[in-house]
């Protein structure tokens, strides 16, 4: 299995930002994640 680029804590923080009202595209851009992901 491929190792994740981000730790669980980083992923949780990204999800919390999105749930707080930030646009998904903005969260992806901020953290360098492809929006297709």
Report the span from N to C terminus.
17 Å
Class per helix and strand makeup = mainly alpha
Average residue pLDDT: 89
Tell me the fraction of residues in β-strands, as a range: under 5%
Protein name: Transposase
Pfam family, one: HTH_Tnp_1
GO molecular function, one term: transposase activity
Report on this model:
It is a single chain. With 37 residues, the chain is mainly α. The protein has one domain (1-32). The chain has 2 helices and no strands. The mean pLDDT is 89.
Indicate the topology:
Blueprint: H1 8-19, H2 24-31
GO biological process, one term: DNA transposition
Protein name: Transposase
Pfam family, one: HTH_Tnp_1
Task: List the defining traits of the structure above.
mainly alpha, single chain, 54% helix, 37 residues
Summarize the structure.
The protein is mainly α and 37 residues long. It is built from 2 helices and no strands. It has one domain (1-32).
